[in-house]
Amino acid sequence: MRQRYHYSYWKISDFCGKFKPVRAALLVLLFVLPCLLSASWPQHDIPAKPYTNSFFATVDSIRIHYRVWNGEMQHPKGKVLLIHGFCGSTFCWRNNFDALAAAGYLVVAVDLPGFGYSGRSSTLNQSQSNRARMIWEMIEQIDPDEHSAWNIVGHSMGGGTAEAVALTRPERTKSLVIVDGMIFIKNNNINVTVVGLVNHPVYKQMLLDYTQNSYLSYNKLRRTLKSTYGFLPDTLTTNGYWEPLQIDGTAETVVNLIANSNEIRELDAKGLANMPVLVIWGKKDRTIGLSTGKKLQRTVPSVELKIIHDARHMPMETHAEEFNRLVLEFLGRNNIGDSVTR
């Protein structure tokens, strides 16, 4: 069946890479034209404490926001790090925190740089390997024990980041869970032509205007969520996603995902064969097709692939009970304390 795609960062880069520069320029113009009729929304700064369990760690002069559950537990069953997807935040995991915490795990959810309540930068390298480096630096600040291993969980774009996190520090990775992820077999860089086009001052400003005034608008976001959920989200859910997107600098982050994403380290998915890996996918996902998960399993046969048949792109939200069961069963098989010894 033919799939429908949304113009998220990863799909734009993939699509543009197939075109010659002139055609890519026309594609950019098609994106930008609607912004001429769009109105901008007021932006604001990052609050001092977005949630009661919010904390910040500074990495490369950028404040990284994260939240903690069971932080005072002396002997957790294991340690879990949750990484959201494109234009998401820790809010994405609101249906999963309690189940993981109730099962005895230390749970940390992080906002990737440029999203949620983490700091913004228009020049930060947003490659998967660089984000992985920054996440490990954050972990070392909050958990400096070099013998402590983590269970890494990532969704969509954050699924690729989670994969890079695991491959970068396998000795501190106890297990990996990827949810409808932007998985890579090898972390290749974005097409050079596309990067050059996006960095052209005129096109870059046009993209910024469109991203801020149209792509990240409330109505566009709600339509996108409807497609990823399979139903129209309520106002509370939409606001939970939309409010962090109003923070000044978010549009620059989105454009910078294409303009500045050169990998700092070569990574190969075959390295996942040495650790427990669970891949969960919504069978009806129209954003990143199930074939992507199957491709990873063919490359790394030891990967477990679990399909949630009625789910689309956000099974951790729309099918939380089944999702939590799958994750907890997987973690239960692979966690005995929090030692690096498996």
Gist of the model:
With 342 residues, the chain is α/β, with parallel strands linked by helices. The protein is built from 13 helices and eight strands. It has one domain: Alpha/Beta hydrolase fold, catalytic domain (Rossmann fold, 3-Layer(aba) Sandwich).
What distinguishing features does this structure have?
disordered C terminus; 15% strand; Rossmann fold; disordered N terminus; single chain; alpha/beta; 342 residues
Describe the structure.
The chain has one domain: Rossmann fold. It has 13 helices and eight strands. The chain has helices at 9-16, 21-32, 97-102, 128-142, 157-168, 192-198, 201-215, 218-229, 235-245, 250-259, 290-299, 315-318, 320-334; strands at 54-59, 62-69, 78-83, 105-110, 150-155, 173-179, 277-282, 304-308. An eight-stranded mixed β-sheet has the order 1-2-4-3-5-6-7-8, sandwiched between helices. It is globular. The termini are far apart.
Topology summary:
Blueprint: H1 9-16, H2 21-32, E1 54-59, E2 62-69, E3 78-83, H3 97-102, E4 105-110, H4 128-142, E5 150-155, H5 157-168, E6 173-179, H6 192-198, H7 201-215, H8 218-229, H9 235-245, H10 250-259, E7 277-282, H11 290-299, E8 304-308, H12 315-318, H13 320-334
Parallel strand pairs: 3-4, 3-5, 5-6, 6-7, 7-8
Antiparallel strand pairs: 1-2, 2-4
Helix pairs in contact: 1-10, 2-7, 4-5, 7-10, 8-9
